[in-house]
Design brief:
The protein is of the alpha+beta class. Helix content is 37%, strand content 26%.
Length: 279
């Protein structure tokens, strides 16, 4: 087979083909590229050609919208026993072999909660994930990823993590508060301040931070997490060393973060109470 890049004018021919592929993608799919005819200094014509062909093949397979079960996608393996047939002592090995087989077939199953056992991951895979349908697409290097928690959320773990790491820790550290994806955007409460927008909430927090040269978190401990149908709350204690000028002081007390579930079943922070802090 002739390699275009090794023939006279090979690069020029590839660049012309690349321009044609770009034009085709722009007309058919609305893709956007730089000026047609300008060479890309970051990629060789060969790499750019493969990239453009991969895009076209992806769009072709996606448009066909063929569905296939995971079990069929990975070759219908029959060597994985039902979970109830696997002794306790063998479950680690069984899950390791199953997970390795999935990875070999470019399927990845991740889990966030540390409370999910390997036996449950094995059960979920052979009983549920094998039956799950995905788009039947086969592209070089393409991996299909799943997260167990999307199917079976561990609300106690996740809400506790959000309350401690993405709320209380975020408020008590010196870095300005900017990221607020876990908060409701309106009608928030922070200590005695109520009916706050998210922007007003951030202003109050950042004014507190600016009063000190530095804030050193000594501990943030969660003591309770309650999850009801539409409301959840996490509570605990904290201790932070505040530095200002040549002086310092220790602030400590109880904290509570209250969540509300929205119409899309996402938990949003709506109320934060921090004792011992003037905000």
């Amino acid at each position: 087979m002739n390699d275009k890049s090794n023939t006279p004018g090979g690069d020029e021919n590839l660049e012309m083909e690349n321009d044609f592929l770009k034009m085709k993608l722009m007309l058919e799919l609305g893709a956007q590229f730089g000026s047609i005819g300008e060479s890309n200094e970051n990629f060789s014509p060969e790499i750019e050609n493969q990239f453009l062909r991969n895009i076209m093949e992806f769009e072709k397979q996606f448009a066909e919208h063929k569905l296939i079960k995971i079990f069929d996608k990975i070759g219908r393996p029959l060597k994985f026993k039902p979970v109830h047939e696997i002794p306790v002592a063998d479950i680690d090995k069984a899950w390791g072999e199953l997970n390795e087989y999935l990875n070999m077939n470019r399927i990845e199953l991740a889990v966030c909660s540390p409370n999910i056992s390997k036996r449950e991951l094995y059960r979920f895979t052979v009983e549920e994930l094998f039956e799950y349908e995905i788009d039947d697409m086969d592209m070089p290097g393409m991996v299909t990823c799943f997260t167990y928690d999307r199917f079976y959320p561990d609300h106690i773990y996740e809400n506790t993590r959000m309350a401690t790491e993405e709320c209380i820790n975020y408020i008590l550290q010196k870095q300005p508060m900017e990221w607020t994806d876990d908060f409701r955007k309106e009608d928030l409460q922070l200590n005695q301040h109520s009916s706050l927008s998210i922007e007003e909430f951030k202003i109050l927090v950042n004014m507190f931070k600016q009063a000190y040269d530095d804030l050193e978190i000594k501990k943030i401990i969660e003591s309770e997490c309650v999850v009801a149908e539409k409301e959840s709350w996490v509570s605990g204690t904290y201790e932070v060393l505040a530095l200002f000028g040549g002086d310092s002081c220790t602030m400590s007390g109880n904290w509570k973060v209250i969540f509300e579930k929205d119409d899309l079943d996402y938990w949003n922070i709506i109320n934060v109470q921090l004792e011992g802090i003037r905000i």
